[in-house]
Design a protein that fits this description.
The chain is built from eleven helices and eleven strands. The chain is of the alpha+beta class and 390 residues long.
Length: 390
């Protein structure tokens, strides 16, 4: 009797009935709406934007937030949803997590009541799409060096700058933009920017070889004039954007495991039916050794993610622990995807199977929301007490 790659340790009892139901519901959504179409979306580089309203109807957008139409689900439930979404495609999970963990979370955590009422209900329903503008062409891992500037002009703010690699940018109705203030002692501030504001544009980034089933854009702000109450009032400095990134990294810790599981399930099914030298590929020792090692890392990664989720639900999660989860689980997921490709041989490079698509996507996941090197240094600083960032 065979067992699935995430069934060896019998972890179902570690999840509540509600958590299992949410995971099952998202898996069914992915099976129905993502799997049959995602290879085509990836090939043409265009996602189905109707997924946002459907995800909103399921309560997936900002699902771990409370009020304003948000589901108020547990952190573990959110993580399990990310796992199932990324089992479909990292780009689909990115669309959902950028909406909820970056754009919505910034407003929910740091916005005024007027800002929350104006934006969050529509975003939770998927009727309004949000993006998060922090990374710049020359400042990714060092956001403190950002060149975007916001200056006061009477009661208004005027913003100039460029942001890069922004998921949902070209299709968003609202952008959360972080900028250095030039005449305000509070330094970096966040701004709620309606994307129809004059001077704002978001050209789509093309020729991507990764995350092709999601929209990636540049944000250009040229004398974008905003009213004084467009600023997020409850945060100053890098604490704001970095805490938002920590929310997204938590989801990735679960999400990457979904891509790895899908690769491993695909490789297992292929190895059972592909005959080599007169017997199934799955019957060879080297194949079984690969499968065993990958199943081991997948299950270890899940236990790590689940532990972090329980800490988060208990309000005891340290951002450095999220760095550990993101570093390990994305790195291992990418290793699993590459190893699964070897089991499929030449078939593994075709769009008929999801493995190389997942591997290409995970190359981006390895980099965004903090590169592996940045997370290594976060962990290194925690262990040694010395900062190696500068």
């Amino acid at each position: 009797m065979t067992v699935g790659p995430l069934e060896f340790l019998g972890v179902d009892h570690l999840l509540s009935e509600d958590e299992r139901d949410i995971q099952k519901g998202v898996r069914e959504f992915v099976d129905e709406r993502v799997r049959p179409h995602v290879a085509s979306w990836y090939e043409i580089g265009e996602p189905d934007l109707g997924l946002m309203k459907e995800a909103g109807a399921l309560g997936l957008l900002g699902m771990h937030l409370t009020g304003y139409g948000c589901a108020g689900a547990s952190a573990v439930s959110y993580g399990l949803a990310c796992l199932e979404l990324e089992a479909g495609d990292s780009g689909v999970r990115s669309m959902v997590s950028v909406q909820g963990s970056l754009a919505m979370y910034a407003i929910w955590k740091f916005g005024s009541e007027d800002q929350k009422q104006a934006w969050l209900p529509g975003m939770a329903a998927g009727e309004l799409v949000g993006c998060f503008g922090l990374t710049e062409p020359d400042f990714g891992s060092n956001p403190a060096g950002m060149r975007a500037r916001a200056r006061r002009d009477g009661d208004d703010w005027v913003i100039n700058g460029t942001k890069m690699w922004i998921t949902n940018g070209s299709v968003a109705e609202v952008a959360i933009v972080w900028a250095q203030t030039t005449d305000d002692p509070k330094g970096i501030r966040g701004f709620v920017v309606p994307t129809d504001t004059p001077g704002f544009s978001a050209p789509k980034i093309g020729k991507k070889l990764s995350l092709r089933a999601s929209v990636t854009s540049e944000l250009i702000l040229e004398d974008v004039r905003l009213p004084g109450d467009a600023v997020l009032p409850e945060v100053t400095g890098l604490k704001g954007p970095l805490s938002c990134l920590n929310e997204a990294r938590f989801g990735i810790t679960f999400g990457a495991l979904g891509a790895a599981r899908d690769c491993l399930e695909t490789a297992l099914a292929y190895a059972q039916t592909r005959e080599v030298f007169g017997r199934p590929l799955a019957a060879f020792q080297l194949t079984q050794a690969k499968l065993a090692d990958m199943a081991l890392e997948l299950q270890k990664g899940f236990l790590l993610a689940l532990h972090l989720g329980r800490l988060k639900d208990d309000h005891r999660l340290d951002p450095r622990q999220v760095s550990l989860g993101k570093l390990n689980n994305v790195r291992e997921a990418l290793t699993i995807a590459r190893e699964c490709r070897t089991i499929l041989g030449a078939a593994g490079i075709t769009g008929e199977y999801p493995i190389l698509r997942h591997a290409n996507n995970l190359e981006s996941v390895l980099t965004y929301e903090g590169t592996s090197e940045v997370h290594q240094l976060v962990i290194g600083q925690a262990l040694t007490g010395h900062s190696a960032f500068s």
